[in-house]
Amino acid sequence: MPVRTIEVRERVMARNDEIAGRVRARLAAAGVPTFNLVSSPGSGKTLVLERTLAALGDELRIAVVTGDVQTHNDADRLARHTDQLVQAVVTNGACHLDARQVETALAAIDLAATDLLFIENVGNLVCPAAWDLGENAKIALFSVTEGEDKPSKYPNMFRAARWVVFTKLDLLPHVPFSLERAVELARAVNPDLGFLMTSSVAWHGLTEWLSFCRARARQGVPV
Amino acid sequence: MHEMSVALEVCRLAEERLGEATDTLVALGVTVGDDAGVEPENLAFCLEALLAEPPFRGAEPRILREPGDALHLSYLEVTDDASPDD
Q1: Contact at CB, A126 and B37, closer than 8 angstroms
Q2: Could you give the domains of chain A?
Q3: What is the pTM of this model?
Q4: In chain A, what residues touch B43 (CB-CB under 8 Å)?
Q5: Contacts of residue A98 in chain B, CB cutoff 8 Å?
Q6: What's the ipTM?
Q7: B81 pLDDT band (50/70/90 cuts)?
Q8: Are the beta carbons of A8 and B13 separated by less than 8 Å?
Q9: Counting Cβ atoms within 10 Å, is residue B64 exposed (0-12), middle (13-18) or buried (19+)?
C-alpha cells in the first residue's frame, strides 16, 4: 500500500507551554507571585515550606500546590501550618508536575485571598526543568549533603532556575561540602543565579529566606 | 526520565493530527536534540509500547537526532487511505 508522509514539526511541549501561559496570565491578573520549588528528593523543600508557613502565616496568605509521585504526606505536613489551602497533586508515577495539573489545582485556590503561591514540585533535578508551570521563577533547593557538582551534572535545572537556596547549612561542619565551589559551579552554568543560605533547624536559619519571601509577596518586588 | 510523558504527548499530537485515521499510521519521526534532556532509546521504547496499542496498530517510532534542544514530532507516515484533517 502506498505510504504518504505528513510533515508535522510540532513541538512536543507546545500544549504544556500553552497551558502554562494561561496559568501565568491568570496568576499575574490576580497579582499572585508564584515560585516553583525544585530539587533532588530529600533536599528539604517540604521542611522549608513548613517553617515558612509557620513563620509568615500570620502576615502573609501563602498557598501551596504540592506534587508527589505517591501519597499526600507533604500536603498533610504543610496543612498543619496554614489555614490557606494546600492542594496536593499525586502524579501517579510521573516524575514532574505539568501545567495542566497546576491549572486544575488553582481552581480550588482563592487567588484574590493569596499573597504568595509556592508550587512544590516532585523531587527530581531532571524533568521539572523542562516543564513550565506558569510560575514567575523556579527556585532550586540544594542541600549541603549533596555533591557540590550537582549544577554540572544537572545544568538544565540550574539554567532554568533564577535562585538557588542552599539548605541544611547546620550540617556544613560535618560534611565535605564547599559552598564556594558549589556556587562557582552553579554560576558556571548560569551567571544570573541568586543565592540564599538556609537551615530549617538552626536558630534564625531562615531569616534571609523569610525576608526574600516577604519582599516578593503580593505587590512587593516584581519577580 | 520523563520519556513516557513525552511519548504520551507525541501520541496525543499524532492522534490529533490523524483524527479517526490512527490505524493508518505506519511510522512517526520524532526529533530529539542532544540537549533536550530526553534519552532517545528510552523514548523509542516508550513509543513502541504506546504505538502497539489501540488506537494505533504497531506504527514504527523513528528518532531523529540533531544538535540543540529541539523536541518535536517531525512527521507521520500513513498508508494512503488516511484522511488527515490538515
Answers
A1: yes
A2: 14-216 (3.40.50.300)
A3: 0.86
A4: none
A5: 5
A6: 0.85
A7: low
A8: yes
A9: middle
